[in-house]
Amino acid sequence: MAPVLLADFERRFPGGATVAAALALPTEGAPVTVLFGPSGAGKTTILRCLAGLERPDRGRIAFDDGAWFDAEGRVDLPPQARRVGLLFQDYALFPHLTVAANVGYGLARRPRHEREARVEALVARFGLGPLADRRPGQLSGGQKQRVALARALAPGPRLLLLDEPLSALDAPTRAELRGELRRLLTQAGVPTLLVTHDRLEALALGDRMAVVADGRIRQVGPIDEVFRRPADVEVARIVGVETVVAGRVVGRPGEGLLAVQAGPVRLTAMDPGGLEGAVFACIKGEDVILERGPIGQVSARNRLAMRVAQVTPEGPLVRVSLDGGFPLTALVTRQAVAELGLAPGQEVVAFVKSPSVHLVPR
Predict the structure, then answer these.
(1) Which residues share a beta bridge with 212?
(2) Which of 233, 263, 280 is at the close of a domain?
(3) How high is the pLDDT of residue 297?
(4) pLDDT at position 341, please?
(5) Which of 212, 166, 353 is nearest to 269 (CA)?
(6) In this structure, what is the dihedral angle of CA atoms 77, 79, 81, 86, given to the nearest 10 degrees?
(7) How far is residue 272's CA from residue 289's CA, in Å, rounded to a whole number?
(8) Phi, psi (deg, nearest 5) at residue 196
(9) Taking a C-beta distance cutoff of 8 angstroms, is the pair 357, 270 a contact?
C-alpha cells in the first residue's frame, strides 16, 4: 500500500474559533500539496498540528501505518519522532552559526564522520559550497532559503512542512525564486505540504491543493482541477475566479448542456450533473474573449453584448470590467487593449465557451 498522510482533527481556541482538518494525501512520488487560503483561515494552525507543535483537541493524524496523534489512544508524538522537516516564514537560521553548522544542526547525535558527509552532500546539492563558512547575516534572501531547506532535509524527513516560504522576500525576489524553490523541492524527493495565500505561488509550486476557509478544508484535488472546477462559490472566490454570478437553471438546450438565467442574460454551460434550481456561474477572466462590432457566428455558445466599465492594468495583463446585465471580468493582454481600443463606455462582445462556465450549487 502506498504511503499516505491521513488527518482528521480539530483545534479549538478560546473565544469559539475552531480549525478542523480532514485530509487524505497520497505521498508516493513526493508531490507538493499547497494549503491555500486567505490570511487567518487556519492554514498555519493545520501545519503546526501536523508537525506536533500544537496539540489538537480531538481526532487523529497518521503517516503511512503509524499514528502521530490519536486523542482517544493518547498518542502524541513530538516533532522529532514524526520525522518532519520544518521551514518557517523567516527561515529561523541561527545567526551565530555558519551555513555548514546551520545545515548540520539537526544531526548532532550522529557520528561525526556521518554528520560531516551529510552536510557536505547537502551543501553541494544546494550550491552553498562557496557560502559554507558565512553566517546568515551575510546571505541574500534566496541563499537563506536554500540553507533553511537544506537544514530541514538534513535529518532525512519523511514529510516537509513549509509555512509561507517566500513571504519574507520582496516581490521581485519572490517571483525570481518561485521556480528555484519548485526545482529544489522536486530534487529533494520528499512529500511536501506548503502554506501560501498567494495564487501565483500555489500555481508555480504545487501539484495538489487543499483550500482552507474559515477554519475548514473546503476542497482537495489536483491544483489545475481546483482552480478550474471549484467545489463551491467560497472556493471560487478564494482561488480567484473573477466572475461569480447568481443564476437559475432554466433548461437543457442540448445534450450535456444547461441553460442558466443570470439576470437578463442567459448563459449556456456544461452540465456537471445533479444541478437544478439556484446556482452560481463561475467564469475565469482568461476564458473571456473580447471583440468589437456586432455579434457574429462563432463557436462559443455564449455571445454577450457588454459595455466596458473599467480598464485596470495588472502587470503584463489588463483587467477589463464589463457590464451587460451582470458584471463580467476579462483578463486580456495590453496588445489586445490597444488593438480593440478598449476604454470605459466602449461597447464590446464577450465570447465565453460553454465548458468555461463552471456551475456550483447555490
Answers:
(1) 217
(2) 233
(3) 54
(4) 92
(5) 353
(6) 150
(7) 23
(8) -155, 155
(9) yes
**Which triple of cell numbers denotes residue 72?**
482517544
**Rounded to two decimals, what is the model's pTM?**
0.77
Q: Grid coordinates 511536501 are at which residue?
A: 192
Q: 230-239: long-range contacts at Cβ-Cβ below 8 A with a sequence spacing of 24 or more?
A: 230/282, 230/358, 230/360, 231/360, 232/360, 232/361, 233/280, 233/282, 233/360, 233/362, 235/211, 236/280, 236/282, 236/358, 236/360, 238/36, 238/37, 238/38, 238/211, 238/213, 239/36, 239/199, 239/211
C-alpha cell at 172: 521581485
d(CA 42, CA 36): 10
How do strand 257-262 and strand 265-270 relate by DSSP bridges? antiparallel
Helix (H, G, I), strand (E, B) or coil at 173: helix
Each residue's pLDDT tens digit, 148-195: 888 998 888 999 999 988 887 777 777 777 888 888 888 888 899 999
Same domain, 249 and 145: no
Give the residue from 233, 250, 280 where a domain finishes. Answer: 233
- Element of type H or E holding 141: helix 141-153
The backbone region for 236, taken as left when phi is positive above 0, alpha when psi lies in -120 to 50, beta otherwise, is alpha
Cell match 483545534: residue?
Answer: 11
Alpha-carbon gap, residue 102 to 148, rounded angstroms: 8
Give, rounded to a whole angstrom, the gap between the first and last alpha carbons of the chain: 39
Same domain membership, residue 209 and residue 269: no
Residues 181 and 145: their CA atoms lie apart, in Å, by 9
Query: Could you tell me if 222 and 258 lie in one domain?
Result: no
SS3 20: strand
Q: And the C-alpha cell for 312?
A: 485596470
Range of the domain at 306: 242-361
* Three-state DSSP class for residue 151: helix
Q: What does the pLDDT look like over 239-258, one tens digit per residue?
A: 888 888 889 999 998 888 99
The segments of the chain whose pLDDT lies below 50 read: none
